[in-house]
Please model this.
Amino acid sequence: VRILVPDSPAFKSLHDSAVDFVPYARDGEIPTRADGVVMLGVPRAHRQKLLALPGLKWALTLTAGVDHITSDLPAGVALFNASDLHADAVAQHAVATLLSAARGLHLARDFQRERTWGRFGVFSGAERAGQGLGTLAGRHVVIWGYGHIGRRLEAYLVPFGARVTGLRSSHSPYDVNSALADADVAVLLLPSTPGTKGIVNADVLSRLKPGAWLANYGRGELVVTDDLVGSLHAGHLGGAILDVTNPEPLPAESPLWEMPNVIITPHVAAATSDIEQRAAAFTADFVRQLVRGDEPPNRVDVSRGY
Amino acid sequence: VRILVPDSPAFKSLHDSAVDFVPYARDGEIPTRADGVVMLGVPRAHRQKLLALPGLKWALTLTAGVDHITSDLPAGVALFNASDLHADAVAQHAVATLLSAARGLHLARDFQRERTWGRFGVFSGAERAGQGLGTLAGRHVVIWGYGHIGRRLEAYLVPFGARVTGLRSSHSPYDVNSALADADVAVLLLPSTPGTKGIVNADVLSRLKPGAWLANYGRGELVVTDDLVGSLHAGHLGGAILDVTNPEPLPAESPLWEMPNVIITPHVAAATSDIEQRAAAFTADFVRQLVRGDEPPNRVDVSRGY
Model:
C-alpha cells in the first residue's frame, strides 16, 4: 500500500511494515502514483492534483469539514475526514468564547487597551455594550448540527448549568423553529452543503429571542452576512461569536469588526500548536485499521456532504 | 430583631414576621440602633459608622473577602461572609479567563480591533505573544486557596482534562513548593490576611516552571507587583490573569496593561447583573437560620481572617 503524506517531521516519522509512506511537499512536485493520500493544509491547486492521481482509492482530509474537497473528488475515490481529531479543541474553543461573552471579557480587553479600570457600578463596559454580566447557569444553548463536536460541547456546557438542545438533520423544521425561538444562544456546527448554505437568513434570525446570541463554529457560508449585520444593527440579536465568516477572511471594511458584542476569532477553533503531531497520530491509527482490512468509521457520505 | 439592609428594591422586598428590616441609604443617614447589619457595596466611611452602632450583635458582608471589614469590626460583633453566594460566578469567571488564555482570545480581540484576520500559519497572534494555542487538556492547575470557590473551580476544570491540585493552609511549605514547581497555571484564591500579604514574591515566582501562568482571583495584595512585572519582563512567567491588582484600581501608568499575555479584568469575577436579587435571597436564607436559633455556617473566624 502506497500512501502519500505531508512531508512535515511528524508525518515523516510514521512507520508501518505493510505500508509505503511517501512524503510530498505541500507546494512542490507530486508523486505519480498512490493508493491513498492524506491531506492537511494543502492549497487547493495542489489538492486537485493529488486527488486526480491515477489509481487513487481513497483520500483522508485531516479536517472536520469536507466542502472544500467534495467538488474536486473523482468518482470512485472514498473520502474520509477527521471530526474526532478536532472535536475537543473546537468544543473547548466554543466554551471559551461562550463563557467570554457571558463574562464580558471582550469588553474588558478593550478597557485594558485603554489602560482603564472599567469598573463603575457593576461593570460599565457591559452597560456600554448593552450587555449584563452573567454566567452560563440557566442559559438555553441550542446546538444546530449535533455530531461529534456538538455532543462534546454539550458535555462541557451542562456542568455550568446550561440547558442544551441538540438539533440534527432528522429534526423537523417545526422542531428547529421551536428550539431556536427559545434559545439564549444558537450555536452553528452544521456542515456546509447545498442544503445548509445561507440557512441562517433574516427569517431565521427574526425567530430568535430579542437579545439572543448567534455563535458560528461551522462554516461561514451558513450565514447570510448582510442579514446578520442587519439583525445586530437593529438590536435584535444581542451579539455574535464568529470563528468563521462569509466571505473569509473577513474583509477589513466589514462592519462586523467594530459592532458591539461581536467576537471574532480567525477560524482557529480547531487550531492547537501540536496539530501536526496529533494529526499524524490520527493517521497512524487510521492506517492500522485499513491494513487490518477494517473500514475506518470516519467515511464521508459525499451525497450528504458530511 | 432589627436588621439594617441596603435600600435597593431587592432588599426592600424582604419580609419575615419575626424581623424588622430597616433599609438604609448607602450614602445617607444611618439608623440609630440595630441588632444586625447587612452590607453590600457600602463605602468605607459609611461602613465604619454602621459597624459602630451601639448594641450591634452581628454584621453580614455579602462578599467573599473580609479584609476590608475586619480592621473596623468592634470586639464582640460577629462577622459573617458570603463565599457561597459568589463561588459559582467566580469559578465560571476563572474558567472563562483560563480557557481564553489557552485559546488566545485576548490576542484575537487585539487583531479584531485592527480589523485583521490574524491567521497566518496556525495563528500569528499566538506567535506574536510567544504563546502556542492549546486547550486545558493535560494542563496542571494548582489552586492555592482551596475553599468553596476552589472546589467549584476544580469541578469545572476536570472535565476539560486538566489535572488539579488544591492547596490549603494545612499544607506544608514543602507541599506548596512541590505543587507550584509542577504547575502550568498557579491560581490564587487565598484570602488577604497578615500571613498572605505579598506571599507571591520573586522567590515564589522563580519556583514556577518557565512559561507557567499566574492567575489571581483572590486579592491584589497577595502579589508583589514589582516582582510580577519583573518575572513577566524576564520571560520567566508565560503570562498572567489578573482580576485583582495591587494597587487597585491599577494605575494608568502600570506596565501590566500592555505586557504580552497579561489579561486584566477589573475585579468583576463575582459580578453578575442579578447580584442584588441573589444577595437579597442569600440574606433571606441567612435571616431564617438566625430566627430559628441556628448559627449560619458562614461565620468568619476573625483571628484567621476568613
Summary: Chain B has a mean pLDDT of 93.
